């Protein structure tokens, strides 16, 4: 099947008649429509078995979000996203929770990514240790404890005291969605306004060749990209966005950590119009702010890396360039209560542990900044 193009399908439009009335569209929507044929956004070739019903166009999303607003009139009007750190004390997890400096950076990024929403951290972290209502198991391969993600979200909801548009849990514990599956990086419930993201497979794993003194710092820095990628994807689901099958996009589904990490950080024109409809942001201004935020994160990573390299030059004379392993199979971004949505799931029998590839974490930010520069220039022209 050929790649989706504007000529044969216009998923960004409410109706095809909008093509004939292009001059009546808002300027940001006109730009999004033009960008469907731009080299900035690469169309996807639908995989085997993918039908048009699997793709959530703008019209279909508007119906879904309209039903959500009808069912939850108060929550849908709120402009607050709450990030809830989740702590878990266990010998299996040396790092019990995400460090505050990372959480603050993450909140700042999300407030720009979802311009129009206020993003706050609900401190102190919610402790999950010893909660009897949360089902646990020991993973047969890693021999580490895992928590059932559905029980975690229920417990989060019962303990939350803040009225918000959505509540997002952040944990370093490995999660699993059902007894039949391996693990998940995140799961979101659109109707409940709840999501939880797990980074246990990143923060509590040993990096190749690292010295003990550099371990914690390197893990924190090394996973900054993973944090913002997974969080932005899961919160996107809480705005009713399902997995995108039109372009390379932040909302693409993924079945391996390699896919989850290397996919774009930004939304394609189809998904961007959906988010723009809710938040009414200035599209170009949002891109400018995203560039500033990515530059800040890159500078923070490079400075921390430089400091870490100097302080550990005796224990590790070779270059301490940050790298990420990118081949672990995952269940990422599974969505509940969202029509036409499918979670990215990998059966435990399909695990492949070979073919690992190391990638410098700073390269992802540099490529994103370069893409934003091109995007801003195109918008201004």
From TrEMBL:
Protein name as catalogued: Archaemetzincin-2
Leader peptide range in chain numbering: none
UniProt-listed Pfam families: Peptidase_M54 (PF07998)
Co-factor requirement: Zn(2+)
InterPro entries for the chain: MetalloPept_cat_dom_sf (IPR024079), Pept_M54_archaemetzincn (IPR012962)
Origin species: Amphimedon queenslandica (Sponge)
One BP annotation, GO: proteolysis
Record's keyword terms, sorted: Hydrolase, Metal-binding, Metalloprotease, Protease, Zinc
SUPFAM superfamilies, alphabetized: Metalloproteases ('zincins'), catalytic domain
Taxonomic superkingdom: Eukaryota
